Amino acid sequence: MERLGTVAIIGVGLIGGSIGQSLRARKLASRVVGVGRDQAKLDKAQRLGAIDLATTDPARGVAEAEVVVVCTPVTRIAVDVRQAAAHGPNGVLVTDAGSTKAAIVAAIEADVRARNLFVAAHPIAGSERSGVEHARADLFDGRACVLTPGESTPPDLLIRARSFWQSLGCRITEMTPEAHDAALALTSHFPHALAAALAGIVPTSALPLAGGAYRDGTRVAAADPVLWAGILLENQGAVLDACAAFRDQLDTFHQALSDRDERALIAWWEAARARRLLFGNDGS
Amino acid sequence: MERLGTVAIIGVGLIGGSIGQSLRARKLASRVVGVGRDQAKLDKAQRLGAIDLATTDPARGVAEAEVVVVCTPVTRIAVDVRQAAAHGPNGVLVTDAGSTKAAIVAAIEADVRARNLFVAAHPIAGSERSGVEHARADLFDGRACVLTPGESTPPDLLIRARSFWQSLGCRITEMTPEAHDAALALTSHFPHALAAALAGIVPTSALPLAGGAYRDGTRVAAADPVLWAGILLENQGAVLDACAAFRDQLDTFHQALSDRDERALIAWWEAARARRLLFGNDGS
Q1: In angstroms, what separates the C-alpha of B253 from chain A's closest C-alpha?
Q2: Which of A202, A217, A271 sits opposite B275 (nearest CB)?
Q3: What is the largest CA-CA distance in chain A?
Q4: Given B146, B240, B253, which is nearest A258 (Cβ)?
Q5: ipTM, 2 decimals?
Q6: Which one of A248, B17, B155, B275 has the fewest beta carbons within 10 angstroms of its own beta carbon?
């Protein structure tokens, strides 16, 4: 891949900061500009080596960009993409890192300039932590990045978007925004809510007796409630579907346990276990 | 602590094997005898350094023991404890490592000899893996071990049991069998079922898009279904109570999301997050 010119990152938190660190560590761009609303956070990002330059002026930040990556909360992304498209040069590639896709893509499709400059993306990497202080240059190594191009996405722009995300270490997958949101509701969005629900039933007094099942099962309950409320609301339909499927599983379990039906319990668990083993043994 | 004489371990899997390795690594016992029904597994345990000697004869295995640790599945523990008490020398300390306590203790209380030699224990350490090949000498380092002595437990026996589990690295906590089972239903037993229920809703096709929330949220679904069906059935009442509390949490979440009530979603998550943060930041 040829070296990029200026890359602008809108929102320099965990994800935006990791993109900046990765671009700089690999010397993939001539410069990385951080755009944000909070000067103190931008200063920190610069100090931590995530960006070369910083600005709180979105129009100036994207004025010379070859690529703009929008890493703001999902409820802000469509607005920020449209603004970046409006102020960016002709030919700029605008992409994002949002955890939901359908609502964002629909809002951008309505804007003729933006939809011709935008390729929706979701690099599946992150943590329950937020903030540039947890950014890592290798955050995207080997991680899936889902692109959800639409019919109006220019083919050459899609090629550039693939190349950009691959250069950060991602494996590229492409699907519709709706297929992405349905899958992520099951693999990520609803599991975050589950972790919070589990954390909610364990009283403080029982925590000294908690072990690995609690630790891992509730880890992502420590994530930012505002960010996650946004994601869940953006993907409301698919998350409610996942919740319904989960309730069916829980009902099966509850019935088998109430009936003291050991055979049914084992069969239920065995089916779940077989799926989990396909995901792979991660040594944890 | 003075060095122990013979320690017999009934059931040399992950937990029994780790106890053996810990005793041997710290030279806490003059010899460690493994007792099991499967000669091949005993041979493996011996090869892996978890035990000094092995036998498939429970009576012979405990005949000279100063301490017997019963590490069989929870549905077998009461029978194995009574057998160890029957064949062990006067003054032997019999303890166990079962994940449930009330049903086991009740079954042993009915046996006059056994209840005078037994202190129920649950070292809270483990893994979704089973088998002596995953045993580790440091498995118990810093982990809680719950003792649930009854009114008939001789005080000197309780002192020896505390000392034994402390020597393996455990922090000792004491409570009633019922309090143990209620707490563990919330912190471990029900969370295992939750992990299986979550694994059950994610189709194979979505696994390439699964990240950390899925990985950690489903990890313990890989545990042995037969062992876990046993634990859930032994602790049926408390697990069903935990399931009911969890359903209430899920209902609160579902209502807030259905209503698109962002404030309620955030408040719900924030309460769960505050509890999780009390557990501590484990760097994962």
Answers
A1: 8
A2: A202
A3: 67
A4: B240
A5: 0.92
A6: B155
